[in-house]
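User: Run a structure prediction on this.
Assistant: Running it now.
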Amino acid sequence: MGVTSGAGLPGLRYRLRRARPRLRLPATVAGRRRAVRGVMAGCVLALLPVTWVHAAGTPRVRTAGDVPAAPVAMVFGAGLWGGKPSPYLAHRLDTAVDLYRAGKVRVLLVTGDNSRDDYDEPDAMRAYLTRRGVPDDRIVSDFAGFDTWDSCARAKRVFGVDRAVLISQDFHIRRAVALCGAAGIDAYGVGAGEKHDITWLAGGAREVLAAGKAALDAVVRPGPAFLGPHEPGVERALETAGR
């Protein structure tokens, strides 16, 4: 039998309103103070990782012109478009080329994702660099740089990197410097310049969330997703560069 009258609707709305959970403030002044303190403490804890990233990374961020020389530059992957470096990744690689030509670094370690056959960041980065005049034997590929911590941990533990210039966008470079420092690398960072468009803003917002994982990685120092044996590629490339 269908409903033929709206007479019951006011009562139904009343019951629905009563069923909704309500946020109730503590009844006492002391209770309200404790609630405010709890909210403030939560905000402080949420901001601690971001504060650590900036405190650890900012003092070691430089321009391409004044960054200290180092044996190795690390270029972090930033995605492919149609098998070629995305614009953000291309800007990182252009910065690496500038540093190499200026004699600030002797070897380029390109670290990125090659977790499946149809996606190969390191080889795309290598091809981009060689087309711009960087000798192939001065480029070393890390195919298991699945995230920033993995790239830093593998640079130290697999490739034996002790000192490096890191290259990324300015919204990411502080986290990269902080994490590579936690991994045992004496690292300085150079931020590839970008216009502050929607992609840049999204990257900056993501960094706020990523700071929590970064702080945890720095404290726990987990092994990378894929460790593997020692690879002598950086050592051999530096030997070649010294000839």
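The beta strands are 61-62, 72-76, 80-81, 84-85, 107-111, 139-142, 163-169, 186-192.
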